Queue: 3 jobs
Job 1
Amino acid sequence: MKRNIPHEIEPLKALQEFTTARIAIGRVGTSIPLKQSLEFKLAHAHARDAVYSELAVDKLTSSLGQFCVPVLHLHSQVTDRRQYLQRPDLGRRLNDASLNLLQDYRTENDVAIIVADGLSATAVNENTKGLLDALIPLLSGNGFKLAPMSLVEQGRVAIGDDIGSGLNAKLSLILIGERPGLSAADSLGAYLTYNPKPGLTDESRNCVSNIRHKGLSYKKAAKKIFYLISEAFKLQLSGVELKDNAGLIAES
């Protein structure tokens, strides 16, 4: 028998305006309504597709080339997607050919920007250009010297340490596809590390996440990233000791 329980659902309805999480979806008997059930299955399919999506290499190369710096095509030690998912350690390190390529471009630089597929190349393909269109003018206009940009296949966050160190950059910024969820399969993350070098762990980084059309806008993300980069250079550190006080500064 169908049981209506509006008194349990109604208080949560207002929250739907602020989140795409599955709340207040109702119930039919002991299950959820058919429409919501089908939407859940579709979201799960999108998440799986995102994990196995591939970088649009040609399109991204063209987009990155608009910023007038060399674009390096690099690859992790992973050989295929299955190994990428099973061996995260191999996705954190460059293969020998990529390490050798970096040596040809090793000069003194401020910021090395890295674009890697991560767990959602879909997120990278859809959001990288919009974010960089907002971020690059902030960096260039304030005197930061950009290293060659890197486009990395089968990479994880820590691969930015190899690349930043190899390019002799003071700071690495890796834009990477975040793990898809059931409400977002296209979320881009930005991780910055001051004084990048192999062997660092996550407490050495700062992260700006959920960069996408229905999440954190490109303009707001760019301002937040630029603020963190500026503070990292001022304090000569990143990670847990670098706090995001941009909102407090704006309010004061």
Job 2
Amino acid sequence: MSSIDTETARRVAKLSRIAVPDAALPALAQELSNILNFMEQLNEVDVDGIEPMTSVTPMRLVRREDVVTDGNQQAKVLANAPDAREGFFAVPKVVE
């Protein structure tokens, strides 16, 4: 079983950009050790021949026909544009 010390917990917190007070480091170290121990328990499970699953209940995804459309929302899309002309976004010329 792996055990994380407070110095390792301090380094993990620093790498994670999480401010952890010194008083909380022993609790963090214990929590990280618990996580690693649980991962070691999971590694002991025999999963040979088991298919990966995406859900605990078998279901079939609803599929729709893939049809290309213009979305019928041109006016809504261009409503907040600072400059729109002839149904398109107008932008300043950047290349001569």
Job 3
Amino acid sequence: MSMQKKAQLVEAVVFFSEHGVSKQMLYPEFEAMLDGVVGLPEFADQQVRLVYVLLNTRLQARSAVFFYLDFDENGRADTGWNLPLRQLAERAGRGPDLGAGPIRLACRSQCPVPWQQMHLWDPNLGPEGNDLVLLRDALKVNSLGLLLEDEATQALDAERLQIASEDSWYAPPEPTKEMAEQLAEKMEKEHRLKAAQLVRQQRLRLEAINQQNEEAMARLRQAAEASRIALQEQIHDLQHALRQEQDLNAGLQAQLASEVERYQASREEMTQQLRALERHGRTEADILRTQFEGEVEARVAAVVAEYREQIAVRDVELACRNQLDMQFQAEIDRLRVECQALADQSGQAMLERLAELGVVFVVYHPGAGHLTIPLHDLVRYQDNPEAYAAAKCFVSETQYRHWLAHYQQPSCEASLPNGERCAMPIDRVEAPSRFIIGESNCCPRHKAGGRLRTAG
């Protein structure tokens, strides 16, 4: 008697991208990837959506766990990842039928372990781009290279064949009432199962939609909070500017009130004087009244003109400040561009490139001849060429300067009693090292005089 072979389940992992299924691998390969044996550079620095699938030898899914996995910048899987995929698949709830009956489905909205919910994701169950349909179709392609189960009808032994009587070969048996009731009960049961499965699928889809709506609401609340904070900061700045303007206005109003009081006191004083003058004569009173009114009008006009001038000066200062700010900003941008250009094309960089091309820097100095200046000595030479030439001649800079003056005009530099220079032609000393100040630049008479004075 032959025994029926028990169906085998295969563990696989399917990778999802924006365009559907992007990669499939068996679970041992997935474990090797987790251990760091292999990496996936195409998923570097990404959080990838994956599905752990248990499928039979007919490439039909029996369980599915939708989970996330992070990859570093080198394409290595997160070393701290330890999601119990097999336990989640065993304890998962019922899901849609993908060809071999309802599957066990574990996702964010249907997670058997609540604290693992944050590591799972919900599949798209909409009419367009249904992730479960994409998973089913991808498994049917058999990219994993699994051995399929032979679906051909198995031959039976002759001893197990049961031959019906000849009178029932051609006519089927008449259905009885019991058979009809069994058939109706079976169809009702299948209908209930399909209705329950459809209800579960719609409930799962509603939970996924609710989860997406909650996430969208959270993002909107976060954006609204950020906008509210920015508006509050802007309101605070405007209130601060308003307080400053109010303080300035209060100061001006206080100053104006003080001036008005002073003018009022002056007016009262002049009114009293006017009344006193009225007692002495109408003509003098008229003159004083006219003078008083003119003086008051002049003072008021002066004050008004002064305040208008202050306001105009403030307006001009504000306009000038804004214009200067714009000019300074433009100047800063221009200087930044020039600095960048100078940094890119600096003299030092140009000299280094010329030195790399074999260019040699040669100068001529009397007494030292033609000097080849290394690149690292160019700055020192530019700072003081005569000091550089004196060092090459092994003399001090002072001696080299005196020798250079003697070399250019070989004459006696001694002073005569009348204060003029001797200027008698003398022999030129060709080498700076043999030049002696007070000897080489004097004629024989002044040399002897110098020695006598030195001896005395």
